[in-house]
Design brief:
The complex is a heterodimer of chains A (439) and B (295).
Chain A lengths: L1 H9 L4 H23 L1 E6 L2 E6 L1 H24 L1 H21 L1 H14 L8 H26 L8 H18 L3 H20 L7 H21 L1 H4 L5 E2 L10 E2 L9 E2 H4 L7 H26 L2 H11 L1 H6 L4 H27 L1 E2 L6 H14 L4 H17 L7 H15 L25
Parallel strand pairs in A: 4-5
Antiparallel strand pairs in A: 1-2, 3-6
Helix pairs in contact in A: 2-3, 6-12, 6-13, 6-15, 6-16, 6-17, 7-8, 7-9, 7-15, 8-15, 12-13, 12-15, 13-15, 16-17
Chain B lengths: L8 E12 L2 E12 L3 E5 L6 H8 L7 E8 L2 E4 L7 H5 L2 E3 L12 H7 L2 H7 L4 H5 L2 H21 L14 H13 L5 E5 L7 H18 L2 E5 L3 H7 L2 E6 L2 E6 L1 H6 L1 H8 L9 H7 L14
Parallel strand pairs in B: 3-8, 3-9, 6-7, 7-8
Antiparallel strand pairs in B: 1-2, 1-4, 4-5, 9-10
The chains are: A mainly alpha (439), B alpha/beta (295).
């Protein structure tokens, strides 16, 4: 590490090489800008004409030249000074968080629990918090498949969709309550996890990613086209909202024989009651996912997942059945996506295939990878950055996604293994050495 | 049942043939390995030694042949078993020529993963484990004790909690043997365990293998290039060349076998070999008449 830094520092700035590089960039820039920005098609009096915009091309070429030159300059003079401290900063936060894990997760849970009752918490904040928690839960679910079992799944949103549609269909056709549908949706999604698992048992890495990507698209296309069942692009509306375990409803005028929440507690009706309930529901679901995963990790099946990620051939030589290990990872990961999906359906009251596009899978995967594969707290931080981050930089308008992409590139440069890449052993022979007392 | 002086057959390989397309990697090889003995398979590079191992441990399905393992629980026909069932049911463990540990898991975790099947049934497919039942906790404690025993034997006890990938090479080799032993095998197959070890580590390895043979009463099958290991510890040596068995017998007998010398040193017996090659082979001179009869 220190040697590598040394070699970067001693690298001198090579002006001719940088100039040559910049010229090349300017040339590529010009070649790209000429067809893209060089002409503008206009229409006047029914006739088309092409307006030349060579000034734009010139600006692009000059910007490309200067930008590339300064980037070369920055890489030699600036990057060695910024990158290691930034990397160390995040690494420091990571190890600090992990050494104070119990305290920090306790504080985080307390903060999450009291959030709805804080004076500044309004509908918007609560809504955003619910939105983020869905992604936290999905991230934790996908972490089982990607982070622990090492199976790169690009179609995770398919299970989320299966869960959402299971609840939507069961609720609209059979009027089953949320609390019956929730486990059913998880079961269906797990079933789909196994269905996907079988054909991909022999695949690994890139090939697995391609097949799972295809699977995600298949589910979405089926939802879009099987009009008689899924109502196609129109989606399913009128999905029942959750009740308080079937005891009370969060509506102003409840059905016959059901007590309304505000009537029971004798408080004025407010739409926020349901919001707070939904918030606690997703918080509980997400925490269940987390604790389940943490516990599974310390069980033989969890260790087998990690062993499979490390070396499948060695697993087979130890008598571990790779089929069972993979299928269990797929099924359990999918089950949590199914739970999250049925929560999504009940929150929205409406589902349509639009909510389950590839970009959702990509964001969930980005959350897992950015957070640090296998790191539970990393998922929370990455969800915060990736889901709420774009909200904070709304002022940037159309440059928002550009900034978002740039941010991800920077994080991956500084912390290639994720923000909080850290693995806690599942079992120890010796007690953890106290801080400072190093061998 | 049997006394130590009358060894019992543990593994019988009959007419094993493995073809990859037109290439015959192993051609009608038959041999047997005894229980509580170290059987070494030697031969020049590309002789098919690792292919024999891969057939035995289910990574390849042999084209022709029967592989019988006489397990205390009954006989197993290894060629008919699915890969992962061979270690699981027939208790055959193996190590790999290029070490295959779980590098990002700790040393202890590597050894506990090896006891997966025992722990899995104790945890009732995770249910008992999730509920934290005593039955699983006891099984886990036992698995740690077994791991601790083997860590002690391979001298890695104080490094139990560091990542296996951070161990030095020699330690990784020994850890892989410990991990294989944690599956409690009746037959342990070691693919070049001494490769890359220095003479001191190699001597320690000899002791470990003899300890496993004598204290755990299991059979060992060994592929090795390091003749100092083969000649010192094996009870029985099988020599392969171009997929065929060319010699089979005690280390001394094999060392004096003209076929073996020809396979290792080439056809021309009068050819002078460079001294470093002779040193590698631990053979004093290529001419059979000058060879010592025994150690």
């Amino acid at each position: 590490m220190s040697e590598a830094q040394q070699s970067i520092r001693t690298e001198t700035f090579n002006i001719p090489a940088a100039l040559k590089d910049a010229f090349l960039t300017a040339f590529v820039m010009g070649a790209l800008a000429l067809p893209l920005a060089g002409f503008r098609i206009g229409e006047q009096g029914g006739a088309f004409f092409a307006e030349q915009r060579m000034d734009w091309v010139l600006i692009a070429v000059v910007a490309g030249f200067i930008g590339r030159f300064f980037l070369s300059l920055a890489r030699v003079s600036l990057a060695p000074r910024i990158a290691p401290p930034a990397g160390a900063f995040f690494g420091g936060i990571g190890s600090w968080l992990h050494t104070n894990m119990v305290l920090m997760s306790g504080l985080a849970i307390i903060a999450a629990v009291i959030l709805p009752f804080l004076p500044f918490t309004d509908r918007l904040i609560l809504d955003r918090a619910i939105y983020m928690l869905i992604y936290v839960m999905l991230g934790w679910g996908l972490n089982i498949v990607v982070g622990l079992a090492g199976l790169l799944d690009l179609g995770y949103v398919a299970f989320y969709a299966v869960g959402a549609y299971s609840y939507a269909l069961l609720s609209t056709h059979f009027e089953l309550s949320f609390w019956i549908c929730l486990p059913l949706a998880g079961l269906f999604a797990a079933g789909f996890g196994v269905i996907l698992g079988f054909p991909v048992l022999r695949l690994r890495g890139d090939y697995l990613a391609i097949v799972t990507l295809g699977f995600g698209e298949i589910i979405r296309v089926i939802l879009l086209n099987w009009y008689t069942v899924t109502n196609g692009p129109d989606g399913i509306s009128g999905i029942a909202r959750p009740s308080l375990f079937g005891l009370m409803e969060f509506t102003r005028n409840p059905k016959e024989g059901v007590v309304a929440f505000h009537e029971f507690f004798n408080i004025p009706f407010s739409g926020e009651h349901r919001m707070v309930f939904l918030y606690f529901l997703i918080l509980a679901l997400a925490l269940i996912t987390n604790f389940f995963t943490l516990r599974m990790r310390k069980l033989p099946v969890g260790r087998a997942w990690e062993a499979l990620r490390e070396d499948e051939i060695a697993c087979r030589s130890l008598g571990i059945n790779p089929t069972n290990v993979k299928l269990s990872a797929f099924a359990i990961g999918a089950m949590f996506a199914g739970f999250a999906g049925s929560f999504f359906a009940t929150r929205q009251g409406f589902v349509s295939p639009e909510s389950f596009t590839f970009i959702e899978s990509a964001i969930i995967l980005a959350i897992v990878v950015l957070g640090g594969m296998g790191s539970q707290i990393g998922v929370v931080i990455a969800s915060f950055v990736l889901v709420l981050g774009p909200e904070f930089i709304r002022e940037l308008q159309e440059y928002r996604m550009l900034a978002f992409g740039g941010l991800m590139v920077l994080i991956m440069m500084w912390r290639p293994r994720g923000l909080l890449a850290y693995r806690d052993p599942t079992i120890r022979l010796w007690p953890v050495k106290s801080k400072g007392a190093r061998k | 049942m049997t006394t130590a002086t009358a060894p019992t057959r543990l593994l019988e390989v009959e007419h094993l043939t493995m073809r990859f397309g037109g290439l015959v990697a192993i051609d009608d090889v038959s041999f047997s390995a005894n229980d509580k003995e170290i059987t070494a398979i030697i031969g020049p590079n590309g002789a098919g030694k690792t292919t024999v191992f891969n057939c035995l441990t289910g990574f390849y399905k042999p084209t022709v042949g029967r592989l019988t393992l006489h397990h205390p629980k009954g006989d197993f026909l290894l060629e008919q078993m699915e890969g992962f069932r061979i270690p699981q049911k027939a208790s055959v463990a193996r190590t790999f020529q290029n070490i295959r540990l779980f590098p990002q898991m700790t040393v202890l975790e590597n050894l506990v993963v090896a006891q997966h099947n025992v722990l899995m049934s104790a945890s009732a497919f995770s249910l008992a484990g999730l509920l934290g039942l005593r039955r699983y906790k006891d099984a886990e404690r036992e698995s740690i004790e077994l791991a601790r025993y083997w860590l002690d034997k391979v001298g890695l006890l104080d490094r139990a909690d560091i990542d296996a990938g951070n161990l030095p090479y020699g330690d990784q080799r020994r850890l892989e043997i410990a991990r294989a032993m944690c599956t409690e095998p009746v037959l342990l197959c070691l693919d070049e365990p001494a490769a890359g070890l220095n003479p001191k580590e190699s001597a320690e390895l000899n002791e470990l293998l003899l300890f496993i043979r004598d204290s755990h009463k299991i059979g060992l099958l060994l592929i090795e290039h390091d003749m100092s290991v083969v000649m010192k510890i094996s009870d029985h040596v099988i020599v392969l060349d171009y997929g065929c068995k060319i010699a089979d017998g005690s280390p001394e007998a094999v060392r004096d076998d003209p076929n073996v010398i020809r396979a290792y040193l080439g056809e021309d017996e009068d050819e002078e070999l460079p001294p470093e090659v002779l040193a590698d082979l631990k053979i004093d001179t290529p001419k059979p008449q000058n060879m010592p009869g025994s150690e």
